[in-house]
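Retro notes, item 3 of 5
We never archived the inputs for the coenzyme A complex last cycle. Fixing that now. Sequence and ligand:
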Amino acid sequence: MNMRSYQAQDFEGCVGLFIDVFNAAPWNNEWTNSVATTFISDLTQTPGFRAFVALDEEGTINGVMLGRVKHWWRGQEYYIDEFYVKSSVQGQGIGTRLLDFASENLKTDGIHNIVLLTDERTPAYSYYLKRGYQEFSSIKFLHKGL
Ligand SMILES: CC(C)(COP(=O)(O)OP(=O)(O)OC[C@H]1O[C@@H](n2cnc3c(N)ncnc32)[C@H](O)[C@@H]1OP(=O)(O)O)[C@@H](O)C(=O)NCCC(=O)NCCS
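Structure as it came back at the time:
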């Protein structure tokens, strides 16, 4: 498995894998190709966009981390928008290697903190906790249907 920074040529692979992973359990989303393409295209055009991919020996994308560098008063931090590994190869260490690769790259560039949102009812929540991520229990994610 090779890890590297995202390149424009990775776009379609990132969209396809995103749909495969998040339309499957435990997320069971209902992304169409059209909406997912717009969603990820928007992310890639966000100021500070920075992303990393894991590729197998054939160059197929098996893991993706999409995010952005944010300028916060404590310094720069990286916000993970999406992080996903191909369903058939999850649990084989690819995600952890990609997370470590991204962390090292970001640290080298002076980014001192990684932040993200996830759903505590999914395996991803304990995944992050086991890897040293800490919960801000006082911060709540609110929404209101309109
Ligand atoms: C979360 C995810 C990126 C981790 O990548 P991975 O390559 O599967 O993880 P690794 O093999 O490096 O690490 C294995 C760990 O992941 C856990 N894991 C295995 N399958 C998983 C799954 N489908 N979802 C979340 N975690 C999973 C294992 O329990 C294991 O945990 P442990 O180290 O505490 O025992 C990946 O499983 C995934 O894409 N999950 C679905 C999408 C998702 O939930 N993304 C995060 C949204 S914030």
